[in-house]
Amino acid sequence: MQQSAFTKKMISGFAAIAMAASCVAVGAVGSVAYAADATPVYSPVEPSDNPRNYAVNLPEGATEAQLKAAVDEAVKLGGVALSQYPQFGTFFVQAKSKSFAKDYAEAATEAGIKVDSVGATRQAYVTGDEDVIDKDGASTFSLNTPSNAGQFDKEKSLASDPYTTADMAWGVLALGADKAKEVTDKDVPLAPVTVGVIDSGVDYRHEDFKNTDGTSQIDFDKSVDCSVNGIPSQEKVNVDGQEVYPWRPTASSHGTHVAGTIAAASNGKGVDGVAPSVKIAAIKAMNDGGFLYPEYVTCGFVWSAEHGIDVTNNSYYSDPWEYWVPSDPTQTAGYEAVRRAVAYATAKGVTSVAAAGNSDQNMDDPAPDSGSPDDVADANSGEPYANGDGKSIIKNRDVKDGIDIPASLPGVVTVSAVGETERGKLGSYERASFSNYGTESIDVAAPGVNIASTVDPDIDGGDYAYYSGTSMASPHAAGVAALIKAIHPDFTPAQVLDLMKKQAAVNYAQLADPAKSDNKEYRGAGLVNAFTAVTKDQPKPTVADAEYSTDGGATWKPLKDATVTGKATVRVKATGSVSVLSLTVAGKTDTVKAEQKTHDNALTASVDVDFTADGDQSAEITANGLNDYKDADDDVTSTVTFKSVADPANLPATADSIASLKKDTADASAKKQSDYTADSWTRFAAAKQAAADVLAKGDKATQGEVDKAAAELKAASDALVKAEAGKPTETKPTQPGKPTQSKQLTETGSSVAVVAAAVLLLAVAGVSLIVWRRRRA
Length: 777
Description:
Elements: H1 3-11, E1 17-18, E2 41-42, E3 52-57, H2 64-76, E4 80-85, E5 90-95, H3 100-110, E6 117-120, H4 170-174, H5 177-186, E7 194-199, E8 224-225, E9 237-239, E10 242-244, H6 254-263, E11 279-284, H7 294-306, E12 311-314, H8 332-347, E13 351-355, E14 413-420, E15 429-431, E16 444-447, E17 451-454, H9 457-460, E18 464-468, H10 470-487, H11 493-504, H12 530-535, E19 542-543, E20 547-549, E21 557-558, E22 563-565, E23 567-576, E24 580-585, E25 588-593, E26 601-610, E27 615-624, E28 636-645, H13 655-669, H14 678-696, H15 703-718, H16 741-776
Parallel strand pairs: 1-18, 2-6, 7-11, 7-12, 8-11, 12-13, 13-14, 14-16, 22-28
Antiparallel strand pairs: 3-5, 3-6, 4-5, 9-10, 14-15, 17-18, 19-23, 20-21, 20-23, 23-26, 24-25, 24-27, 27-28
């Protein structure tokens, strides 16, 4: 990071904003159960006939046909269908009638359509481009900072002077993300990972999202706008005469700041993200009023699940309720829609990380809420909004059974915020004064005070700014989750969370003990740890049991505790995250390297051995993982013990056997070639020479060689055939069972003589017959 340039930009007057997303939840967080034949839960009749969006939830497991029938019923009542999710039986619809929820519940029941709940997703009515009933609204796409920025507006009270921190990138350093980058740059391959930033949009033009090779940190194909009725759109829109992507921020830099913390490029400019190797998908789920309604958030989670997004960051609560009470008909349907969407994304492998909130609340036992619904009136002045329909913020609302969505939903990683105990000094941290807490509610802690990151200059007036809030803590944790997923691409969300918590415990002692101050337990499992994510608990190769073969590989047997005789081949196989496999047996080593570092490699190492002595043996096996960092823990070593037995045939020949062979050879030498047929002598001569060759080896001759030579010499001697007197000993070999040529000629001559005699007799008989017949005539 170029600090001087950054400081200069800060002097020019960057905005400093921080998020205050109060997120409190206790009680059950599952689906609300209803009797199969019960009337659906529906929200109260509204004060006026104005366009409103409604969530409709069928029983989970409803078929696509059943969902279609339910949508058709809503259309019959004048509704306009919005997004539909047959994946979990939910759809959204816009309707103008103030009694739509009640009317639909009754109509669906009468039509035999089972519906769990139907209710308005917001307390204010719909205006602008979202009004698809009247279709007379103004465009929602204009660069502006609205007078009300919703929940993000609260961050201003947490703003800090850019000059008050001694290290602008302290959050990245506190997690060891700078050292983690050194490891990932040269020592370990990372699987592709995309983090979805469900937020106010991301300024894709920012210099810190551009890599030195010209590529972008933003994945344009996976980015989307969900902020118009929760209907996903990737079509460019016109803003001040320019065609821009619809997920460009129009009211807040919040999402851009979050994205920079996760994955700002390491390009020599501005700041580095926790995980600059990952991609960002901008998922715009906030409208220009600063609200993130259930239909937007549901769209964001389902989009993530369907478009290969691995991790989502959620630095918000779903408006208009800071704490959704599932049993309250006003909130039942909206809560259930988001709950189902998060569960669906989790089942699809998406790890969701969320901010705990900035209300200094005990999430295990929340105090009454006096800030909701936040879309009907100004939270500070109480002045009602034009589309608030005369409603007001409810004071001291009982939220004992309230749920912060998404932070308190099952499977979501909930993150508290910490700051440096002593400004500018790393290694000691304490709870941020605004951070929510809770022994049961917090999973991990992360830096969230005075965090420097990227912002949209059209909105904030500069390229970088300091924000404070659990909104800033959450992306630090999301960056670590992304690193874990990149190292362990096959991990489920539950496994990512478990490992994140295990590794966060490494730096648990760096977090101040709340028992010594305010007893507000905020630490969870500890401080998220980027460096440990890329060096410890690494994927290890899977090493199969070592085997051996004594028949040239036709059959293989387990090597462990075996007794191996004489010559054999020993092998071992390793699969998965293996880069190098080495096997050493009896002083011989075979090392095999993978062509590429991937998680689906398969290597085999083998060694040929020849045991000439009995004894204890071992096979030393080393399978290296994909991480070459010196302290990485992904290498597997093992020792397999077995016994060797020398093959007697390979032992030095005994003196007696050599003496016997010498005697046999001497006896053979006394025989004369002229006494035997050439055929039998040829074999005998070869056997005699082989025996002589073995004897020439002296004490280096093996017992097997001597035994073989002796056996062949005896067999050849026994096969000698005496030559007949007066006949040459050289004859051509004949095929077994066939006569010799001379015999064939003799037999042929005899046959000819017999045939000739027979012909002569027949001829004489024929003449006699003719004479006899003539006489008779």
